[in-house]
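User: I would dearly like some help making sense of a protein record. This is the protein in question:
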Amino acid sequence: MGPSIRMDLVLTAAPAGWLCSPTMRVLLVSHRFPPHSAAGTEVYTAELARRLQARGHEVHVFSSHKDTGRDDLTLERRSHAGVPVTEVINNLYHESFEQTWQHPGVDAVFREEVQRIDPEVIHFQHLMYLSVGCLEIARETGAAVLMTLHDYWLECPRMGQLVHADGELCNTVEFERCGTCLPSFAWTQSASARRAGQSLAGLRRVTGLDLGPLARKIHKKISRPSDLQAGVDPRTQESFATFASQRTDDLRQCTTASVQRFLAPSRFLRERLVQWGIDADSIYYTPTGLDPLGEKAASAPVSDGPTEVLFLGSFIPIKGAHVLLEAWGQLDPALRSQAHLRLHGPIFQDADYAADLGRQAKAAGAMMGEGLDRAGVQAALARADLLVVPSLWFENRPLVLMEAMGAGVPVVVSDLGGMAELVEEGVNGWTFPMGDAAALAAVLSERVRTGPESMAAVSAEALGFPTWEEATDQVLEHYAACLASRGSAG
């Protein structure tokens, strides 16, 4: 039996803020969740959970976690900031590529959780590492079903980034080209890694000893990017092209049949998904919330010291740190002496790329440091005069960009995707052609030449976005509309 529909939630014309009072049982579904992962989607989901709970709603989170020291497809229950979280252990022991989007084991676990929680609203944030079957299960409960689109995972089977294995941006998804990309994609564990993981999980069952963290630490040190070359086997190319086509058909059919409303944080992403096949009337532009992180924009004195330029992002090629360092190296040495460039980010498995960045940074006179926690990010932004986001892919609504604007820091971004949409030239930042180090160098030269004072005049305009309270109101209004639709249909 599905959850009962509360008729006090069907008044969709209510003013903003009215939806703070009636309580709902809400299940948020995300591929990953803090503290195990703190990228944009995960941080957004955690913040939305906190905000909904603060309004008096009963909030639960369903997510996944990779932990080879535990049995695959088992559950871990914990709490994060007072919100109950259930994580299914998914160690990527996939038998076929199809299980990267349609996983019967995950479906079974999710069905049990939905029956246990009995939510009135199920709000999907991401399905990577989970299963598209979760959407069908959600629909069958009679709950309101929504999905926020954080990236291009529905379109692109390689992490939803629309970047080919050869590093080229995919402006359109062509299945034959997918066939030359996916053979080098690490979508499942190797046989040896699987055996090792199963042994670790067995040891933990018997002794309680968890060697997973040690094993992951060793693996991280010795691992290197795959030596596979994309598309070396024509038969493999053909099979993966077929998988890509099948995946698109499955996802399109399931999402359009199961999801009542799609929420798109950027207009750019909304238009792409309309082209992909989602009804335009079902996708609502719903920007994420932005709260000022401090008083920098309004009250901080303008520094007469060096211009502080900042990069915050993972040290992986598509984030474009190498483009920034190349541009920095092109600045006139006398001008460069008037500024500091600091780069902070975590190093994942591409240690060779990170090492190359280190050499670039040393040659260009830049400082390269480790990733920062939330407090560290806020502290870094408080000191910064300019944030550079030189990404080489269609970023949607990058968290770091929103945080910079919340801190009153102007930005320089690549001219594509949701990034460019957020920037009004000369008002809250500047754009440059993606990947063009010379063009970026020209922008940086002008900014350093004019100094922090000129950027302080810009930064005060960076706060013209919905607050988190307003964004939460919008989400709740979508919930009420979907519940009303379910009630009228029933």
Notes: The chain has 17 helices and 14 strands. The radius of gyration is 23 Å. Confidence is low (pLDDT under 50) at residues 1-21, 222-233, 295-301.
